[in-house]
Amino acid sequence: MIKHQIINHGPEHEQYFQGCGTAYSGFDNVATGIGDNAREAYDDALDQVCEMGIDENDLPKRPKGIRKSDRVPKRWGSGFWWYVSIRY
């Protein structure tokens, strides 16, 4: 396992999501994923981390608090996504 932090930002509109950085966090890198639910967003962030050369086995496959049932309500309409970041 590598030192990491998983941040479940929750649902946000794509125009208003502020992003996630590493300043004052003790981490050097961050990847933020998006999806219709928390699981999709985590998987997207995990894919980005793996593209940077980190082995996916160094991060949890089923992180605590990341669930497919946490999803953007359909009634909110388009432009809303679930965001999850991984700092490492």
What does this structure look like?
With 88 residues, the protein is an alpha+beta fold. It has one helix at residues 38-51, and strands at residues 5-13, 30-35, 80-87. A three-stranded antiparallel sheet has the order 1-3-2.
Briefly characterize the structure.
With 88 residues, this protein is of the alpha+beta class. Helices cover 16% and strands 26% of the residues. The chain has one domain (5-87).
Rg is: 13 Å
Helix/strand-derived class? alpha+beta
The end-to-end distance, rounded to whole angstroms, is 11 Å
Number of strands: 3
- What is the averaged pLDDT score? 96
3D shape: globular
Write the layout of secondary structure elements.
Layout: E1 5-13, E2 30-35, H1 38-51, E3 80-87
Antiparallel strand pairs: 1-3, 2-3
Key descriptive features of the protein:
single chain; 3-stranded antiparallel sheet; 88 residues; alpha+beta; 3 strands
